[in-house]
């Protein structure tokens, strides 16, 4: 995570605790690597995955597109392929001369498959757009398969299938798949009359998952150890605006092994790789909202993740390349089965593919995962799924904030009553302070005795804020990372998962930036109004006199601090907290009015 994120989290935690503390009138109490053959194979595969950023057609110099479309081909690719084929022994001679393409169309995506490597060279998602409303190309501009399989032969050759030209067994230029249909696409690498490798892809019209069965016929003795490395070699394109600040930090490679998810992230210029041994559940690479995942039902031996960053993370021209490989054993039947996924990081799609895959979406921090994960899985996602067909996401967030406040209302009511009682005790507390000014211990005992006699809990005003904190932190992380509110519009906000900037500043302010977000400004104003209400009102309209100059200053300092913290966060989060504070003001007025009536009735 970057420095601003850490700073934001720390400041939010400090502000929320300090806010609860200082809102109370009484200030005293509220005080290794794999074998060389595989490494060579992977290094060669990476050398062919060079990418070049593509500028948007109508972009200006201030807006660099997040649609970082990349190409994996170099000018010398054909020569390299021919040289590579010469170094693969009998597998090289199996390559056919001509390359062909087959376009697979489903209701969810359009994929172009090539026989050079027997896999997809382009994947376009139909239900999603980039920030500038262009189709989402997960990969584009390639002439060979994004998937590659590597293994060592008994002739001591390193075979890389993305350099070999397979023979198409499915005679079709285009395949159309309806929602409830499944279709297969086959390729073969014919080595001799009784030796060949056959790829069988199985597509479903209702899923982003693709099945791949690879059979090795007559090759039991030709593949050393009966082990192959299968992986994704193509960099994924960015899709969001200003990728250097909004998306690059999410690009990474993942592996799920031993019941734990591990991440490889390169945070500065250079490259890195990480080997994992033993049983592997799946490997993946991702951008902010899209991912590809590989898993197999065969026995696994390990995995390899690689990452490369070509420049500073905040440079829009920096390329981010991640690859992921899984090492598997060929079964006794002579085949390996893979389950592939290429699509959005939505809960339903990922959970249907693998129950642990949604763990790549950041819903909070590890120390809070025991609470944030259940909140997201059992409350937030089901809620938004339920209301999705009835209202837009903006109204859904507003309703969610209202529901949270209604659930917390009993605690809120108790909190405000406790704060009002504390205000009523101010004169007596001042008397104790003056009487035992030279005896702090006696002063403390007498104050606690007063609390007990009056039935007042000095910390009662903190509870609702403390209960709200885990929800706020969870929503803070989730709304910025979840595809759930991506490109969802509300009022002036065109994307609730991004800041809703409405004002441009002629200069850059540290932590704030050179823009001001609309919902954050309204949220700050609502917090200031609530501060004024809390500090200046109580039953009978009084009670604010006990607050000193420090308290009055803090009424405006805290909201102003939150302006800096929230300004560059997702608009959906600011909208939630704005409504939360507005509802809090309403509840506070109702509670004070009830207490005034009770006081009048008691006096009568």
Describe this protein's structure.
The protein has 604 residues and is α+β, with helices and mostly antiparallel strands. The chain has helices at residues 3-22, 36-47, 77-86, 90-93, 243-246, 347-353, 369-387, 393-407, 409-424, 426-435, 440-454, 463-481, 518-536, 549-566, 571-603; strands at residues 101-105, 109-114, 119-129, 135-139, 147-152, 158-160, 167-168, 174-176, 182-192, 195-204, 209-217, 227-232, 252-257, 260-264, 270-277, 280-286, 290-296, 300-309, 320-329, 335-344, 501-509, 513-517. Helix 1 (3-22) packs antiparallel against helix 12 and helix 1 (3-22) runs antiparallel to helix 14 (549-566). The radius of gyration is 30 Å and the shape is elongated.
Detail the topology: elements first, then pairings.
Blueprint: H1 3-22, H2 36-47, H3 77-86, H4 90-93, E1 101-105, E2 109-114, E3 119-129, E4 135-139, E5 147-152, E6 158-160, E7 167-168, E8 174-176, E9 182-192, E10 195-204, E11 209-217, E12 227-232, H5 243-246, E13 252-257, E14 260-264, E15 270-277, E16 280-286, E17 290-296, E18 300-309, E19 320-329, E20 335-344, H6 347-353, H7 369-387, H8 393-407, H9 409-424, H10 426-435, H11 440-454, H12 463-481, E21 501-509, E22 513-517, H13 518-536, H14 549-566, H15 571-603
Parallel strand pairs: 1-8
Antiparallel strand pairs: 1-2, 2-3, 3-4, 5-6, 5-12, 7-9, 9-10, 10-11, 11-20, 12-19, 13-14, 13-16, 15-18, 16-17, 17-20, 18-19, 21-22
Helix pairs in contact: 1-12, 1-14, 7-12, 8-15, 9-15, 10-11, 12-15, 13-14, 13-15
